[in-house]
Amino acid sequence: MLADEKTRNQALEPDQSFIVEAPAGSGKTELLIQRYLKLLGLAKLPEEILAMTFTRKAAAEMKERVFSALTEAQTQDRPKKAHASFTWELAQKVLEQDKSLEWGLMNNPARLRIVTIDSFCSSLTRRMPLLSRMGIGLNIQENAKIIYRETARIILSLAENKTNPYAVMVQNILQHIDNSKEDFIKRIVQLLEKRDQWMISFFDHRENLEIHPLNENTRKKLSFALEGLIQARLDELNNLFSLKIQKRILKIALYSGNNLVTNNSSHPCSCLAYLKFFPDTTIKSLEIWKGLAHLFLTKNNTYRKKPDVRLGFPAGKNLFEKEMKDEFEKLVGSLQTNPAILSTLTKVKKLPRREFTNEEWNLLKSTIRLLAEINKILKQVFSSHQITDFTEVSLAAIKALVNKNENGEEYPTDLLFYLDCKIHHILVDEYQDTSFKQEELLHKLTSEWSNQDGKTLFIVGDPKQSIYRFRDAEVGLFIKTQYHGIGNISLKPLSLKSNFRSQKYLVDWINNCFQRIFPQHEDANLGAISYNPSTAVLEKSINPGVIYHPIPYNEDSNIISQDEANKISALIKTLQLRYPKKSLAVLVRGRTHLTSIIRLFNESNIAFKADSIDSITDRPAILDLLSLLRALRFSGDRIAWLSILRAPWCGLSLRDIHSLVELNASTPIWLLLNNTSQITLLSKDGQKRIQNFLQNIRPFLNRFVDQNFRDVLEACWIKLGGPACLQGTNPDDIEVFFNKVEEIIFSGQEDKFENFDQILMDLYASPLAITENAVQVMTMHKAKGLEFDFVILPGLGKRIKGEEKRLIYWMPHGDDLLLAPIEEKGGEASPIYEFLSDLNKEKEDYETLRLLYVAATRAKSQLHLFGHLEPSKETKWKPHSKSLLNKLWPHIKDDWLKKLTETMVSEPIQHKKETSAVHSTQRLPINFSLPTPAQSIIEGPLVDIEIERYLEPEYYWAGNKARCLGNVLHRCLHDIAVEGLEKWTKEKIENLKPRFKSALQGEGLPFDQAEEALESGIIAISKVFEDDRGLWILSLHEDAHSEYPLTFFENNHYIRSVIDRTFIDGGIRWIIDYKTGTHKGGGKSLDIFLDNEEKRYRPQLDRYESVLRKYGEKLPIKKALYFPLLKAWREIN
């Protein structure tokens, strides 16, 4: 019995609402499907149940598994395994309900409402285009960054419009970022990507950004929200001090403060002189607490070793002064026993004041006012392009569900009333990835529900796997929903424990590690999730669960990366040799960690699949082609022109480029290239290359005005010699580039060429041709939801990239939205901005722990960890503070250091000899010319290509069902012959039914006809195994082939044939054609039927014989027809 068997059964109670925490490998999807089937078996209409997921892949998988469960219940006996048997039983009840209420589910699976949240929102806006204010006919863009940039440029242009009320606001912001236009655009794009988080109207529906007074009351409200957060920090520190420690701190604080208030009253610790009691945690005591933090911490936020006169501790001339110094040092020693105190003291030391300065408030007001205009302009840009994005759709869907009266109070729309009548049960998968807007949607959908009306909400997820903050996921919503439910609906929290995925050693390591490094207490606002251990269902393996691979340190990071890549490649070869059928995956934090690994995989011929890893812009040939595009479109783009002069097709040296432009910083490059006196300054090689280049490119400069630009660009690239300069770039990637150019031209949006590099950033290079056993290479984020036998985590010692500055710092916190204005570039740091930034770093740190958990739990058999340490003053070696290895360090430290010592002894560090860096570039020979075109096509009679089926005898009389059955039965007989008769047991033939039926439906047969054809097909296969002739045909033979394709030329036609079965037996080449027709009756009437079939198909078999003779067959040939359903055989001689 499973450790959580009772919990799993409880989760299927159809009249209860639940929120289920389902850790990695716990069988979450099966539980979700069982719940769905349970509700479906009790429903009056299948549309009463709505299941929502976050990705199309997850929705498709769930729908497919539900439909497969129904198909298996319809066609197979009850399975023996308990969990499969229970699912089968639930599916049987659904089929009974389906038959009783005439749903027709098997013929109309679209009635199963299993959708993504985005597609559900989209359906709502299509139903109510006016109410949602979305209109109709808008295309949804998954990546609307180009639109965001266009919006940002429009906002930037407001600065030049003196009559526009927003001009001053834009100018004010520009001054704070050093008037950097590109920085401004970048930060506006960042705002738009996460706009559902900062739209204040989302948090308080009675407020509107455009007309919001933003007065002192608003200022106080924001300050009050900040105050609550500051006091929470003080509470956190206060709770770490025992009463005994508090008394000791008070004694030392008074001593320091009294000395400083006399000698240095401006010191932050001087305020401690007025302490009478240990401070409370109200905002009034903030400066006291910050004084205490300064008392114990240095500027670098480490504990002070010895106090001196500057801290209020005189030189120690008398006994009391010496005792106070000693007491200080002892107290610091006591504080050091709890590591949490140091980090919390550091946080308190940096706490801001609760009020905004006038300058901060004015800037914040300007920015908030501008947010409304940004959102308004974005909608206009969307409308002009007839497109939108999913954020806009989600927000519009929420608007379609509620209206507001004159007082700003909400009331349901007709659409919400309709949905309330229609939907009785909602299931939500992966709830840990919910955003604020999606949680609000659920709140609206269930706003008219109660706990007693029989409607239920079933939420499944694992907060430990919430890793999509960059996509607006807010893990705190899961915790809040566990405690408070959604709206009027109370949700009973359940937790699954069983792990069906990983072997016991691996589960034990994951439990021990993450219990230690995850936070001990949960905090919904900071995204702190505590760890609950799982129970392994699988036994221990003969292999250890986790293996450490320390990489020796080297000052040259490239050597570390290369060393790591070498060891990973060696490990993969070893694993593939030992376990050829096992799956392997390499998972990384970021794509840049893969550079050395992928290069070595290519060099070592290790087959790998790396979708969405290699950006197309990482290919030199693509960058050169991009420069050529910009030079042709924008003749004044100096960088583009200099880039194509440096590209292999021109190959100008750096010295020649310098000579060309040294004294002409503003003259267009094209004019310099046509200036004879300027060209004479170049080397002879350079002059010749420029001459060739001009000769090749000149004809194309203005041709795109009246010709298709894609054709002009491609012709110019070929003329310059581009195809000879691919430098390892896949030709498919070049085709992708040109197709994207054509797509833009076709859409009429040629202004997009100005930011074509941004468009290319979202395109990825084609993966290499892969084998079935290819190593999967992907990011940790991409790996979520997948599993592999062996998982390798490289680059754990590398630092994690920090966060970029924002135009306005916003952070949802509880029911409030915390805000801070942008910091002035080069100016003093804003305490409030820094405080929110630090809070965000905490949230990021917690998510990084969860990302490690996701990566580690992808492994079924074994996990391999690779990383390096760095030299340290405190200890000899330690991980970089911002690395993933540092997160794991509390658990792996001792074993990792031991393994590192062993590695350094067995593999002495090889210091690479320094060599002078020589920069070289590939370039075409100076006398390069295009290859001679292939010979022109010789004209002659038109040659046709035909598929044999158009030449076969017509059998329209047999009908579509016979055709479909024939196609599927042919494929089955092929599989039997290829796999071997011994592998096809009666049980396997019986288990073939669902696949056989799906294949029939895939051929286009309706459900009822597929049932009839399925019965005939299974009978045919069974008869083959009962027939000695059938067994002989499908058994092993010399030079045997099934579904053997051959192409031949006849009467000015190329004809493609497929021979069902051919082999050599007893020195004779047999050609056998399967015929899946049947005949009712026997005796003479059957002989007549077979005679007619022989006449009908003789020409076809004769043609097969002729083709084999043309292919060189010398043996005698015999031909025959075989009828599986009749156990009949006819030789044709």
What do you see in this structure?
With 1133 residues, this protein is α/β, with parallel strands linked by helices. 48% of the residues lie in helices and 13% in strands. A six-stranded parallel sheet has the order 3-2-8-9-1-10, with helices on both faces. A six-stranded parallel sheet has the order 13-20-17-14-16-15. A hairpin with a 4-residue loop joins strand 27 and strand 28. It starts with a helix and ends with a strand. The model is unreliable at 200-207, 911-919 and 949-958 (pLDDT under 50).
Present the secondary structure layout.
Blueprint: H1 5-10, E1 18-21, H2 28-40, E2 49-53, H3 56-75, H4 82-101, E3 113-116, H5 117-127, E4 139-141, H6 145-157, H7 167-176, H8 181-193, H9 195-198, H10 200-203, H11 216-238, H12 243-263, H13 286-296, H14 319-336, H15 339-349, H16 358-385, E5 387-389, H17 390-401, E6 402-404, E7 410-412, H18 414-422, E8 425-428, H19 436-445, E9 456-461, H20 476-484, E10 492-495, E11 498-499, H21 504-517, E12 535-536, E13 546-551, H22 557-578, E14 584-588, H23 595-604, E15 608-609, H24 620-633, H25 638-646, H26 654-661, H27 669-673, H28 676-679, H29 684-697, H30 709-720, H31 731-747, H32 756-760, E16 775-779, H33 780-783, E17 788-793, E18 808-813, E19 816-821, H34 831-856, E20 859-868, E21 870-871, E22 877-878, H35 884-906, E23 944-947, H36 959-979, H37 986-991, H38 993-1002, H39 1007-1026, H40 1028-1034, E24 1038-1050, E25 1053-1065, E26 1068-1074, H41 1083-1110, E27 1117-1123, E28 1128-1132
Parallel strand pairs: 1-9, 1-10, 2-3, 2-8, 4-5, 8-9, 11-12, 13-20, 14-16, 14-17, 15-16, 17-20, 23-25, 26-27
Antiparallel strand pairs: 6-7, 18-19, 21-22, 24-25, 25-26, 27-28
Helix pairs in contact: 2-4, 3-4, 5-17, 6-8, 6-16, 7-16, 11-15, 12-14, 13-15, 17-19, 21-35, 22-23, 24-25, 30-31, 36-39, 38-39, 39-40
